Amino acid sequence: MSVIVEKNVAVALRDGITLRADIYRPQAEGRYPVLLQRTPYNKELWPITAMTLDPIRAAAAGYAVVIQDVRARWASEGDVFFPYRDEGDDGYDTLGWAAAQPWSSGVVGCYGLSYMGGTSWLAAASGHPALRAISPTTAPNDFYHDHFWRGGALNIGLLAMWAMRAIGPAALIRSRPQPADFFPLLVQLIDDIDDFEEVLRALPLDRFAPGRPDDDRFVPFFYEFMRHPEPDAWTRSLLVAGRHHQVKVPSLSIAGWHDLLLNADLQHFRAMRDTAGSDEARRASRLVIGPWAHAMFHNVVGDLDFGFRANGMLLDLKEDLTRFQLRWFDRWLKAQPNGIDDEAPVKIFVQGANRWRDEHDWPLSRARYRPWYLNGDGSFARERGRDDGEARSFVYDPADPCPTSGGGLLLPAQYTPGPVDQHRILGRRDVLDYTSAVLARDLEVTGPVRAVLHVTTSGRDTDFIVKLCDVHPDGRCYNVCDGILRLSFRDGQTRQAVEPGERLAIEVDLWSTSMVFKAGHRLRVLVTSSDFPRYDRNPNTGEPAHRATRFEPALQRVFHTADGASHLILPEIESTT
């Protein structure tokens, strides 16, 4: 089917602002269902807008695809961009416009990756009757608990990277500097991006110079997030967390085990199954989890190759991501009985085994949650070690933080996301290492992973970071999942004082994984107190990290005694072979 493209089509909003969209649709006369993507990254930037769904192929398959620049970005009008603040109303208005066009059948689906997935969720929560289904990929849910903050720590690497690189250049143009100032400001922004880690070391963070704190037309959201160091009505207002009951259409969530928004995608799916606003949405919503990092749907993730079945170009050797999503929209926008209802609601990629597997729900009901103990002799085992009354200790110095080594990242290219050999941090004096015996048989861990640590600190606040790793027979050690907790945020909702030397029992959420630790491998747990520049550095002084102007080293102790046995809870899956 031949396709025509219309550029910069105007969409008028209720407040008089005009947004602009590019439209890809069949050349043949007729009315077609609409697929809508709303982006802050430039509607013409195909490496992002077409990453998971090719608009030309979709148009050739009988859809009208609308890709729109959001308010205050690129070709669209608006004064200052602020993430998600206007996307509910703007999405609602755009849905109404799309449904009313002469080439539209009156039904719409929303899709997109990351920010665009977030706009899809907000459009769904708006309740517009033209919307029939969504397909959000790696989409945020709760700014505080699983996005720009995690475990009470600021995901400063993500926030700075996003503000400086993804939003900054176009925002600089819109901030309307004097012509003579523009080029020097652009050069400085590029230099700051190139010197990423060094500029993040400057204190205090709430006067972060590359964000131009005195220019309220540049990236004002960078500083606004820091003004909300614990969850409140403002942080809850920006995204869809707690509002899934307003979503009445089915969702297809596509996630990655090494994605920085993994937990958000899992929460979306669980909330849809439990609380969505219609029986159809609760019953028909689906979840797919690959071994991917953020915006990377390849079979090579980090340092590991998971095999071509993992590649988004040929999922499970059957279809690519475009075809997969078109089948989803064919069912809900064209009412085609194509059998997608008969497929499993959950599809996961089991790492280690490197195979896809169908499941009925998430988390898996057959998982057995078993403790594995961090013992004083450095072992990691199902049995608690001999109680010698000693704790293992290390000194965390914020001036010399443990460097970022893999994980769910969105950082400059020198910081590799996903599973990465941990040799860079093994042996550091501020990293504790607990290692299991060699496995006699395969061990599958699929589900949420959490650590229970019994700790003290000499500081007035501090962080604890836990990584679960897979150690290969040749000694290479790859991170599988990880988590962070700021002690002052140990109840998950409000800041609490930390008394130096006070013994605390804390839980660190390592999110989830699906991993077969193969026979001949070992499990390893790493415990430290920093992961920089991924997270901001806790100053240990009790002062909020984003306002800190000085650091103090802190002595950290992890206990392994009978009355305080530190351990991980692993969701084990019994082998069916």
Work out the helicity level: 10-25%
Specify the CATH homologous superfamily of the largest domain: Alpha/Beta hydrolase fold, catalytic domain
Strand element count? 27
Distance between the first and last residues' Cα: 48 Å
> Helical element count?
13
Task: Indicate the overall shape.
Answer: globular
Tell me the structural class.
alpha+beta
Main β-sheet, in a few words?
Answer: 7 strands, antiparallel
Average pLDDT taken over every residue: 96
Task: Describe what this molecule looks like in 3D.
This protein is an alpha+beta fold and 577 residues long. It folds into three domains: 3-141 and 239-359, Alpha/Beta hydrolase fold, catalytic domain (Rossmann fold); 147-236, alpha-amino acid ester hydrolase ( Helical cap domain) (Orthogonal Bundle), CATH 1.10.3020.10; 368-573, Galactose-binding domain-like (Jelly Rolls), CATH 2.60.120. The chain contains 13 helices and 27 strands. The strands form seven sheets. Strands 15, 16, 17, 19, 22, 24 and 27 form a seven-stranded antiparallel sheet that branches. The chain has a six-stranded mixed sheet with strand order 1-2-4-3-5-6, with helices on both faces. It has a four-stranded mixed sheet with strand order 9-10-13-14. A hairpin with a 4-residue loop joins strand 13 and strand 14. The protein is globular. The relative contact order is 0.11. The mean pLDDT is 96.
